[in-house]
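Appendix B, example 12.
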Amino acid sequence: MIRHLCCFALGACLAAGAAQAEPFAAARARGELVVGVPYLAPPPVAGAKIRTPDGLDAGMADRLGQSLGLPVRLARVPPEQAAAALAAGEVDLALADGAAGQPASVAVQPTGYASRPKAVIRSDTRLRNPADARGRSVCMAEAATASKALAESWGAVVRTYRVPSDALVAVREGSCDIGLVDDAVWDPLMRFPEWKKFSSTLAADGARQERVWLLPAGDPDSRGWLGQEMRAWERASAWKAMAAKWARDVAFDVYLDQEVPDCHG
């Protein structure tokens, strides 16, 4: 009798293990993790240099793919289209700023990464508060929608560029008064000696937004794995490392892009 009970218990455990799906099973079957992002810069024209995209979305997707052992493909998925894209299997998961407006079919996994726009200004200017930006030119990447909205609320003259390095070159060359980047990447960027005279900024303004993952609510295995992965990233200081890499890459982009010496020496 005891032997039969043991065999039954073992069989039940094996059956439960077999029934438990792998996280992101569709991606594994496809051989590729497809990640939706709110903005995807158009590809550069033939012969143009590859430039670092705005934000950490690409770095986050690549790191997740490495953890899963899968190559990554990015697809443009505005947050309001995420539910449909997930339901259709067009993407395995998507990134968004917050979960507002998502239906019950979409699960939300916080990343732990939150930021708000921060100004990059020449240190010899008198610009110190958001009110000082009224009528001034404020530049940012096209993808930086929060930065654009904030600059518009200041009454600034908004100019957008395909990538952040283009906006920062405009600041360095004097054709733009203020550049906006995420505050999480501002500090590592300003640690480079060549950015010292551009390390003035404005008083903090605007809401801090957390980046979140969106995935199908009907896939608890993937969500459970993703939650564990985000906690592992936090323990490993992954955000600090990704922000530092972004700042290093963009600083190099600007170095290559800048056509004239810094304005005013």
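The chain has nine helices and nine strands. Residues 5-19 have pLDDT under 50 and may be disordered.
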